[in-house]
C-alpha cells in the first residue's frame, strides 16, 4: 500500500494563509502597515496586498518582511507546513 502524500495547497490558498499570518504578527507587534513597509523597505500598498492574499511573494520579500517584524523567516511560513 503506497503512502499518500499531503495535498499541496493552491497558490491562492497559500497566499491567503501567508497574508493572514503576516497581519497577525504585524498586529501583535502593534505595527501599522506603513511602519512594517518602512522597516522592510517595501511600499505600503505592497504590504497591504500581501495581507489580502493578492501577491505571490518572492523569497527575498518574505525575508524582508520577517526582518521587518524582527522574527524568524520560518515563523511566517510555519502555518503552510504540511503538518
- Quaternary structure state of the chains depicted: single chain
> Count of DSSP E strands?
0
Mean pLDDT: 93
What's the number of helices?
A: 5
Radius of gyration over C-alpha positions, nearest whole angstrom: 14 Å
Q: How many domains, in number, for the residues?
A: 1
Share of helical residues: 55-70%
Distance between the termini: 21 Å
Description of the molecule:
The structure is a single chain. With 83 residues, the chain is an all-alpha fold. It has five helices and no strands. It has one domain (11-80): lambda repressor-like DNA-binding domains (434 Repressor (Amino-terminal Domain), Orthogonal Bundle). The mean pLDDT is 93. The chain has helices at 11-28, 33-40, 44-51, 59-68, 73-77.
At a glance:
The chain is mainly alpha-helical. It has helices at 11-28, 33-40, 44-51, 59-68, 73-77.
Jot down its keywords:
elongated, 83 residues, mainly alpha, 5 helices, 434 Repressor (Amino-terminal Domain)
Amino acid at each position: 500500500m503506497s503512502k499518500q502524500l499531503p495535498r499541496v495547497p493552491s497558490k491562492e490558498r497559500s497566499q491567503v494563509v501567508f497574508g493572514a499570518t503576516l497581519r497577525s504578527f504585524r498586529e501583535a507587534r502593534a505595527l501599522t502597515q506603513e511602519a512594517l513597509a518602512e522597516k522592510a523597505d517595501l511600499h505600503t500598498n505592497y504590504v497591504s496586498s500581501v495581507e489580502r492574499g493578492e501577491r505571490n511573494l518572492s523569497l527575498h520579500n518574505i525575508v524582508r518582511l520577517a526582518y521587518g517584524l524582527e522574527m524568524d523567516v520560518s515563523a511566517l511560513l510555519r502555518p503552510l507546513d504540511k503538518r
